[in-house]
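Researcher: Go.
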Amino acid sequence: MSKVYIGMGTCGLATGAGKVREAVELWAKSRGKDVDITSTGCIGFCQVEPIMDVVTPEGFRLSYGQVVPEDVDFLLDEVLIKNNYLLDGLLGQHESKAGRLEGIPLLSEHPFFRKQMKKVLRNCGVINPVSLDEYKASGGFVGLKNALAMEPKEVIDQVIAS
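Model: Structure:
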């Protein structure tokens, strides 16, 4: 099954992400492909919305910016069928346990993100914001689990120390 992520935050929706999603659904139906479409929040690069991430057959997640519905057929055919990833609008690739595609920079190396260090919002635009399973898989609730195993004073001391 192919996987596509679409930034459906306010900025994505305002620039047409809903229509991009519809175009992905139509592409999948017309090609007889099973595509898991996941809505995400904004990654903070609002000026290149709508952003659509496509997971390659090898498992690499590539981000494309300023995607319009008219681009979807070409983009998905190239990435998912022809394995051609170097297309206009390519922003970069997400870090992956599978490694890295040669010749495609990490999204974190993009000039917009290069000097940023995301902590609180590190999963924004990366996971489905309404999925507890995705949140847990990305390390969510670990802090709560740790805090519940501590005495109240230990929690307070740790918060003060950090």
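Model: The CA atoms of residues 149 and 155 lie 9 Å apart.
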